[in-house]
Amino acid sequence: MKHTYLLILIILSTILLLSGCKTSTESEEPAPVFPMYVDDNGNDINDYVEQETHESGPDISTSTTGPSSTPGGAPGHSFIDSDDDGICDYAQDGTPTWHSPGFIDDNDNGICDFWDESHPMHSRHDGMRFHDENGNHINDYFEEEPHRSGDHDFIDEKEDGICDYAQDGSPSWHGPGFIDRNQNGMSDHWENGGRGHGGMMGGGHH
Predict the structure, then answer these.
(1) Which residues contact 130 (CB under 8 A, 6 or more apart)?
(2) Quick check: 164 and 157 in contact, CB under 8 A?
(3) For 55-69, 133-147, 185-199, which range has the lowest pLDDT when averaged over its residues?
(4) Is 196 exposed, middle or buried (0-12, 13-18, 19+ CB in 10 A)?
(5) In 10 A of CB 179, how many CB atoms?
(6) Tens digits of per-residue pLDDT, 16-27?
(7) CA neighbor of 146 nearest in space, from 158, 132, 156
(8) Which 8-state DSSP code applies to residue 47?
(9) For the range 187-191, what are the long-range contacts, defined as Cβ-Cβ under 8 Å and sequence gap of 24 or more?
């Protein structure tokens, strides 16, 4: 009888040990960071703002809410390039127009929750943020005051009030949350293998 109890005890201990080891070695996949950046064609422009690989979220034009009053381009908007520079105009006007996988809009107001200051998700993600304290529908971090970037000064050769680096499709970070551990000037999230690199978890082009 004693040997039976001992054997049961050994078996239970082994099961618990193996179960604990499995739990300790398993790691949760890190959450993706939005908006994403990917440059498969190597031209230093985010593929999601270019015509062939344009990504603007789902088309919700049939919805009765939001899109008509959404500043900039509505979700699912077509590629528009009035200045023929190869970049969607809505990715250059400073509005909260989405260009990336990962679009979500729980309150149906036409603005991605990550960039919607009225949504709790706005302050709970690690990606680049939209902030518009002066109410002009332009991301404050793109403007001269209070321009915020981890790797460059405010430059505005176009004299349109928006930092040129926020309009050229380059991986130039604006706002809080800039991380660059290898000090190469590019956000770690947007580099290959990063949580905000489109080829990783964002699913590439749609």
Answers:
(1) 96, 115, 116, 117, 122, 139, 175
(2) yes
(3) 55-69
(4) buried
(5) 12
(6) 555 554 444 445
(7) 132
(8) G
(9) 187/37, 187/150, 189/33, 189/126, 189/127, 190/36, 190/37
In this structure, are residues 46 and 34 in contact, taking their beta carbons and an 8 Å threshold?
A: no
* Helix residue ranges, H only, the chain: 2-25
Q: How far apart are the first and last CA of the chain?
A: 65
Which of 110, 76, 73, 69 has the alpha carbon at shortest distance from 91? 73
Q: How far apart are CA 48 and CA 55, in angstroms?
A: 5
What's the pLDDT at 73? 94
What is the tens place of the pLDDT at every residue in 39-88?
Answer: 999 999 999 999 999 999 998 765 545 444 678 999 999 999 999 999 99
Collapsing DSSP states into helix, strand and coil, what is residue 126? coil
Residue from 202, 139, 142 nearest 172 by CA: 142
Cβ atoms within 10 Å of 82's Cβ, excluding its own: 7
